[in-house]
Specification:
alpha+beta, 6-stranded mixed beta sheet, two-stranded antiparallel ribbon
Length: 363
């Protein structure tokens, strides 16, 4: 299989999942159906504006235009900081103000319909040319949701022994230097050489690029170990799954150095299963027993707990819950408190640490 054949095969899988496919040159400013004014534009602005109007019909046009302007200019030149700002706007909405009945009203313009995936615009574009300050590059596949480039896939020739998966990783690092604007909006990076596939965040090094080894959350490597890319595509990029992942499984931690972390498949499915069980257990006739999630050492308990906490706190089925984290070691307590404290963007609340029994009663 050549790189082009791998690209075409991936596009077929994506179309089966509900993405509409277009060829990058066709929507370029000089293409058959232009959707960009030039190669520097990374947003499909008309699609984004149309989605904003569709999802926010009660918000005045001027406020919707203001929201679009905020997305186009994220207000910081630092790439990872801009990415963090965008992720916050994506998940919580873009803050706007407008006049209603003579009063100034504060509101949020939603960029995505989280509850109804089909209400969003799902687009897979291959060979999307991007012009940076000095270089022009063309990533293999970019997935746009409502005109925003949220997922980038870089593929390498499966038949070339010298073009392995880490050549794709190196290519993305080059892209980040040469066409940085598209990465302001990126949520997930995917690299593959046909047999192997990995996914990582914008700040991830090679060690943090991970397999996605399940489609249904139960069976591991259901298509065999040499079909990792198809497993990842069908297991994560399904619109419903991807929206859930983007909303609750992306974290930014800043302890002097900003880092973006994204959950692994085991953390994603553990939290989804646990949430279902907790909602059942919390019903009036429920058992009040949520269950147990078991982790091996070093497999990311802290991220699982943080993502679970965020899901519980934002669940409609659970009214304003209080979460108490109990640990059996002081060092672990401090470590976990640190992780929760650094994840305020996701939790939308500042956690507090308990020192004594009396302190616990007071809190």
């Amino acid at each position: 299989m050549t790189e082009d054949q791998l690209e075409q095969e991936t596009l077929v899988w994506l179309q089966e999942l509900g993405y509409h496919h277009v060829f990058g040159p066709d929507i370029a400013h000089d293409g058959a159906n232009p959707e960009r004014r030039n190669y520097r534009e990374v947003l499909l602005e008309e699609r984004l504006a149309s989605s904003i109007a569709r999802l926010n019909p009660k918000v005045p046009l001027a406020a919707r235009d203001d929201a679009l302007a905020q997305i186009k200019d994220l207000g910081t030149p630092a790439l990872l900081s801009a990415n963090r700002q965008f992720h916050k706007l994506l998940c919580t909405g873009v803050p706007v103000q407008y006049q209603r009945d003579g009063e100034t009203v504060g509101d949020f313009v939603q960029l995505v319909d989280w509850a109804a995936p089909s209400m969003n615009d799902w687009l897979a574009v291959n060979q999307f040319t991007l012009q940076g300050p000095k270089h022009t590059r063309r990533p293999d596949i970019i997935l746009f949701v409502n005109g925003m480039p949220l997922v980038l896939l870089e593929l390498k020739n499966p038949a070339d022994a010298n073009a392995d998966i880490w050549k794709a990783f190196d290519q993305i690092q080059t892209y980040k230097e040469q066409i940085p604007d598209v990465f302001q909006y990126n949520e997930i990076l995917i690299i593959s050489d046909g047999s192997e596939a990995r996914m990582g965040s914008l700040s991830a090094d090679t060690e943090r690029f991970m397999n996605w080894r399940t489609i249904d959350g139960v069976n591991i490597d259901p298509l065999g170990q040499f079909n990792e890319l198809e497993t990842l595509v069908r297991g994560l990029l399904v619109p419903e799954m991807l929206l859930d992942y983007l909303r609750y499984f992306v974290l930014f931690e800043d302890d002097g150095r900003l880092v973006k972390k994204i959950a692994g498949y085991h953390q994603f499915h553990a939290v989804r299963s646990a949430i279902q069980q907790v909602i059942i257990a919390a019903q009036p006739d429920g058992s009040r027993k949520g269950g147990v999630v078991w982790h091996t050492q070093g497999s990311g308990k802290s991220i699982t707990m943080t993502c679970f906490a965020a899901r519980v706190m934002q669940s409609v089925a659970l009214e304003n819950p209080t979460l108490v984290v109990i640990t059996d070691r002081n060092d672990l307590d401090g470590q976990l408190f640190g992780v929760f404290s650094l994840s305020q963007d996701l939790l939308r609340e500042q956690p507090v640490q308990i020192a004594t029994r009396g302190d616990l009663r007071d809190k």
